[in-house]
Amino acid sequence: MAATSAAILNGLGSSFLTGGKKSQALLSSPVAARVGSSSSSSSSKRFDVVAALPPKKSWIPAVRGGGNLVDPEWLDGSLPGDYGFDPLGLGKDPAFLKWYREAELIHGRWAMAAVVGIFVGQAWSGIPWFEAGADPGAIAPFSFGTLLGTQLLLMGWVESKRWVDFFNPDSQSVEWATPWSRTSENFANATGEQGYPGGKFFDPLGLAGTLQNGVYVVDSDKLDRLKVAEIKHARLAMIAMLIFYFEAGQGKTPLGALGL
Protein backbone atom coordinates (compact mmCIF):
# COMPACT_ATOMS: atom_id res chain seq x y z
CA MET A 1 0.00 0.00 0.00
CA ALA A 2 2.85 2.40 0.86
CA ALA A 3 4.51 1.70 -2.50
CA THR A 4 1.24 2.40 -4.30
CA SER A 5 0.81 5.73 -2.46
CA ALA A 6 4.36 6.75 -3.29
CA ALA A 7 3.80 5.97 -6.95
CA ILE A 8 0.63 8.05 -7.01
CA LEU A 9 2.41 11.00 -5.40
CA ASN A 10 5.29 10.73 -7.84
CA GLY A 11 2.84 10.70 -10.73
CA LEU A 12 1.01 13.75 -9.43
CA GLY A 13 4.32 15.50 -8.99
CA SER A 14 5.26 15.24 -12.65
CA SER A 15 5.80 18.49 -14.52
CA PHE A 16 3.19 17.45 -17.07
CA LEU A 17 0.40 17.46 -14.49
CA THR A 18 1.59 20.15 -12.10
CA GLY A 19 2.87 22.55 -14.74
CA GLY A 20 5.85 23.86 -12.82
CA LYS A 21 8.40 23.48 -10.06
CA LYS A 22 6.25 25.23 -7.45
CA SER A 23 3.61 22.52 -7.49
CA GLN A 24 6.27 19.81 -7.44
CA ALA A 25 7.78 21.40 -4.35
CA LEU A 26 4.35 21.50 -2.75
CA LEU A 27 3.74 17.81 -3.37
CA SER A 28 7.20 16.88 -2.09
CA SER A 29 6.72 18.89 1.11
CA PRO A 30 6.53 17.28 4.60
CA VAL A 31 2.75 17.70 4.49
CA ALA A 32 2.55 15.52 1.40
CA ALA A 33 4.92 13.05 2.99
CA ARG A 34 2.54 12.71 5.90
CA VAL A 35 -0.21 11.79 3.46
CA GLY A 36 1.87 8.88 2.20
CA SER A 37 2.84 7.75 5.68
CA SER A 38 -0.71 7.93 6.94
CA SER A 39 -1.88 5.66 4.16
CA SER A 40 0.48 2.95 5.32
CA SER A 41 -0.97 2.97 8.79
CA SER A 42 -3.93 0.62 9.15
CA SER A 43 -4.82 2.01 12.59
CA SER A 44 -5.25 5.63 11.45
CA LYS A 45 -8.01 6.70 9.10
CA ARG A 46 -7.18 10.45 9.15
CA PHE A 47 -5.46 12.00 6.14
CA ASP A 48 -3.79 15.41 6.19
CA VAL A 49 -5.14 17.64 3.44
CA VAL A 50 -2.69 19.51 1.21
CA ALA A 51 -4.05 23.01 0.60
CA ALA A 52 -3.79 23.80 -3.10
CA LEU A 53 -2.23 27.17 -3.85
CA PRO A 54 -4.20 29.39 -6.23
CA PRO A 55 -2.73 29.12 -9.73
CA LYS A 56 -0.79 32.13 -10.95
CA LYS A 57 -2.53 34.08 -13.67
CA SER A 58 -1.09 33.51 -17.12
CA TRP A 59 -0.83 35.75 -20.16
CA ILE A 60 -1.83 32.80 -22.36
CA PRO A 61 -5.54 31.98 -22.00
CA ALA A 62 -6.35 28.59 -20.45
CA VAL A 63 -2.68 27.88 -19.67
CA ARG A 64 -1.75 27.78 -16.00
CA GLY A 65 1.89 26.79 -16.07
CA GLY A 66 4.60 25.25 -18.16
CA GLY A 67 8.12 26.55 -17.69
CA ASN A 68 9.66 29.95 -18.27
CA LEU A 69 7.54 30.76 -21.33
CA VAL A 70 4.37 31.06 -19.25
CA ASP A 71 5.64 31.28 -15.67
CA PRO A 72 9.21 32.66 -15.61
CA GLU A 73 10.97 31.98 -12.34
CA TRP A 74 12.30 35.55 -12.21
CA LEU A 75 8.75 36.95 -12.14
CA ASP A 76 7.36 36.14 -8.71
CA GLY A 77 4.09 38.07 -8.96
CA SER A 78 5.24 40.96 -6.77
CA LEU A 79 4.99 43.50 -9.61
CA PRO A 80 1.53 44.95 -10.34
CA GLY A 81 0.03 43.32 -13.41
CA ASP A 82 2.56 40.48 -13.47
CA TYR A 83 1.10 37.71 -15.63
CA GLY A 84 4.39 36.02 -16.46
CA PHE A 85 4.89 37.74 -19.82
CA ASP A 86 8.60 37.76 -20.60
CA PRO A 87 9.17 35.33 -23.49
CA LEU A 88 12.52 36.96 -24.35
CA GLY A 89 13.84 36.76 -20.80
CA LEU A 90 14.50 40.50 -20.58
CA GLY A 91 13.82 40.62 -16.85
CA LYS A 92 16.22 37.91 -15.69
CA ASP A 93 18.53 40.56 -14.26
CA PRO A 94 16.78 42.26 -11.30
CA ALA A 95 18.39 45.60 -12.17
CA PHE A 96 17.09 45.46 -15.73
CA LEU A 97 13.67 44.31 -14.50
CA LYS A 98 13.43 47.38 -12.29
CA TRP A 99 14.41 49.63 -15.17
CA TYR A 100 11.96 48.01 -17.60
CA ARG A 101 9.12 48.45 -15.13
CA GLU A 102 10.02 52.13 -14.72
CA ALA A 103 10.11 52.54 -18.51
CA GLU A 104 6.78 50.74 -18.89
CA LEU A 105 5.15 53.08 -16.37
CA ILE A 106 6.49 56.25 -18.01
CA HIS A 107 5.67 55.18 -21.57
CA GLY A 108 2.26 53.93 -20.49
CA ARG A 109 1.37 57.20 -18.77
CA TRP A 110 2.43 59.21 -21.81
CA ALA A 111 0.42 56.88 -24.06
CA MET A 112 -2.71 57.33 -21.95
CA ALA A 113 -2.36 61.11 -22.13
CA ALA A 114 -1.71 60.93 -25.90
CA VAL A 115 -4.75 58.76 -26.64
CA VAL A 116 -7.05 61.15 -24.79
CA GLY A 117 -5.41 64.14 -26.50
CA ILE A 118 -5.79 62.62 -29.96
CA PHE A 119 -9.50 61.91 -29.53
CA VAL A 120 -10.33 65.22 -27.85
CA GLY A 121 -8.14 67.26 -30.21
CA GLN A 122 -9.66 65.89 -33.38
CA ALA A 123 -13.21 65.99 -31.99
CA TRP A 124 -12.69 69.66 -31.08
CA SER A 125 -10.86 70.90 -34.18
CA GLY A 126 -11.65 68.31 -36.83
CA ILE A 127 -7.95 68.19 -37.75
CA PRO A 128 -6.18 64.78 -37.86
CA TRP A 129 -3.69 64.48 -35.03
CA PHE A 130 -0.76 63.84 -37.36
CA GLU A 131 -1.51 67.06 -39.29
CA ALA A 132 -2.41 69.33 -36.39
CA GLY A 133 1.01 70.95 -36.08
CA ALA A 134 1.20 71.89 -39.76
CA ASP A 135 -2.38 73.06 -40.20
CA PRO A 136 -2.65 76.79 -41.09
CA GLY A 137 -5.51 77.15 -38.63
CA ALA A 138 -3.58 75.68 -35.72
CA ILE A 139 -3.26 77.95 -32.71
CA ALA A 140 0.44 78.64 -32.24
CA PRO A 141 1.12 81.52 -29.85
CA PHE A 142 4.80 80.57 -29.74
CA SER A 143 7.31 79.90 -32.45
CA PHE A 144 8.57 76.37 -32.91
CA GLY A 145 11.99 77.30 -31.52
CA THR A 146 10.48 78.87 -28.39
CA LEU A 147 8.22 75.89 -27.83
CA LEU A 148 11.07 73.40 -28.34
CA GLY A 149 13.43 75.31 -26.05
CA THR A 150 10.82 75.61 -23.30
CA GLN A 151 9.98 71.93 -23.50
CA LEU A 152 13.62 70.88 -23.41
CA LEU A 153 14.25 73.13 -20.42
CA LEU A 154 11.23 72.06 -18.38
CA MET A 155 11.23 68.40 -19.40
CA GLY A 156 14.98 68.24 -19.04
CA TRP A 157 14.73 69.47 -15.46
CA VAL A 158 11.92 67.09 -14.51
CA GLU A 159 13.42 64.08 -16.28
CA SER A 160 16.87 64.70 -14.79
CA LYS A 161 15.32 64.69 -11.32
CA ARG A 162 13.45 61.47 -12.08
CA TRP A 163 16.62 59.89 -13.46
CA VAL A 164 18.65 60.78 -10.37
CA ASP A 165 15.86 59.64 -8.04
CA PHE A 166 15.70 56.29 -9.82
CA PHE A 167 19.32 55.50 -8.99
CA ASN A 168 19.33 57.34 -5.65
CA PRO A 169 15.81 57.15 -4.19
CA ASP A 170 14.58 60.10 -2.10
CA SER A 171 17.60 62.18 -3.08
CA GLN A 172 15.38 64.74 -4.83
CA SER A 173 13.24 65.61 -1.82
CA VAL A 174 15.97 67.56 -0.04
CA GLU A 175 15.64 71.33 0.25
CA TRP A 176 18.40 72.34 -2.15
CA ALA A 177 17.24 70.03 -4.95
CA THR A 178 14.31 72.25 -5.89
CA PRO A 179 14.39 75.89 -6.96
CA TRP A 180 11.75 76.94 -4.41
CA SER A 181 12.39 76.65 -0.70
CA ARG A 182 9.08 75.06 0.30
CA THR A 183 8.55 72.54 -2.52
CA SER A 184 10.95 69.82 -1.46
CA GLU A 185 8.18 67.93 0.32
CA ASN A 186 6.25 67.74 -2.97
CA PHE A 187 8.98 65.56 -4.45
CA ALA A 188 9.32 63.26 -1.45
CA ASN A 189 8.19 59.71 -2.13
CA ALA A 190 5.20 59.60 0.21
CA THR A 191 4.36 56.00 -0.70
CA GLY A 192 7.93 54.78 -0.35
CA GLU A 193 7.68 52.91 -3.67
CA GLN A 194 9.59 53.66 -6.85
CA GLY A 195 7.41 55.15 -9.57
CA TYR A 196 4.49 55.92 -7.25
CA PRO A 197 5.26 59.20 -5.48
CA GLY A 198 1.78 59.95 -4.16
CA GLY A 199 1.60 62.61 -1.48
CA LYS A 200 -0.27 65.92 -1.43
CA PHE A 201 1.28 67.00 -4.73
CA PHE A 202 0.94 63.80 -6.82
CA ASP A 203 -2.29 62.56 -5.24
CA PRO A 204 -4.31 65.73 -4.62
CA LEU A 205 -7.63 63.87 -4.77
CA GLY A 206 -6.55 61.36 -2.15
CA LEU A 207 -7.27 58.34 -4.34
CA ALA A 208 -4.60 56.20 -2.68
CA GLY A 209 -4.32 57.84 0.71
CA THR A 210 -5.63 60.44 3.13
CA LEU A 211 -4.32 63.54 4.84
CA GLN A 212 -4.13 63.23 8.59
CA ASN A 213 -2.99 66.35 10.40
CA GLY A 214 -1.34 67.53 7.20
CA VAL A 215 0.53 64.24 6.72
CA TYR A 216 -0.21 61.97 3.75
CA VAL A 217 -1.03 58.44 4.91
CA VAL A 218 -1.08 55.68 2.29
CA ASP A 219 -3.98 53.27 1.98
CA SER A 220 -2.14 50.13 0.84
CA ASP A 221 -5.22 48.31 -0.43
CA LYS A 222 -6.35 51.23 -2.58
CA LEU A 223 -2.82 51.80 -3.86
CA ASP A 224 -2.43 48.15 -4.88
CA ARG A 225 -5.72 48.18 -6.79
CA LEU A 226 -4.81 51.43 -8.53
CA LYS A 227 -1.41 50.05 -9.54
CA VAL A 228 -2.98 47.10 -11.33
CA ALA A 229 -5.66 49.28 -12.94
CA GLU A 230 -3.05 51.79 -14.11
CA ILE A 231 -0.70 49.28 -15.68
CA LYS A 232 -3.60 47.58 -17.49
CA HIS A 233 -4.80 50.89 -18.92
CA ALA A 234 -1.21 51.88 -19.74
CA ARG A 235 -0.60 48.72 -21.74
CA LEU A 236 -3.89 49.14 -23.58
CA ALA A 237 -3.00 52.75 -24.39
CA MET A 238 0.42 51.76 -25.76
CA ILE A 239 -1.21 49.20 -28.04
CA ALA A 240 -3.76 51.84 -29.10
CA MET A 241 -0.96 54.27 -30.00
CA LEU A 242 0.72 51.59 -32.08
CA ILE A 243 -2.55 51.12 -33.98
CA PHE A 244 -2.87 54.90 -34.40
CA TYR A 245 0.58 54.99 -36.03
CA PHE A 246 -0.39 52.29 -38.52
CA GLU A 247 -3.63 54.12 -39.28
CA ALA A 248 -1.77 57.40 -39.79
CA GLY A 249 0.50 55.68 -42.31
CA GLN A 250 -2.64 54.98 -44.34
CA GLY A 251 -3.96 58.50 -43.89
CA LYS A 252 -6.65 57.42 -41.43
CA THR A 253 -7.56 58.65 -37.96
CA PRO A 254 -9.01 56.84 -34.94
CA LEU A 255 -12.29 58.72 -35.20
CA GLY A 256 -12.42 58.07 -38.94
CA ALA A 257 -11.87 54.38 -38.38
CA LEU A 258 -14.84 54.44 -36.00
CA GLY A 259 -16.94 56.22 -38.61
CA LEU A 260 -17.16 59.43 -36.58
Automatic annotation (TrEMBL):
Organism: Catharanthus roseus
Protein name per UniProt: Uncharacterized protein
Top-level lineage group: Eukaryota
Upper taxonomic lineage: Eukaryota, Viridiplantae, Streptophyta, Embryophyta, Tracheophyta
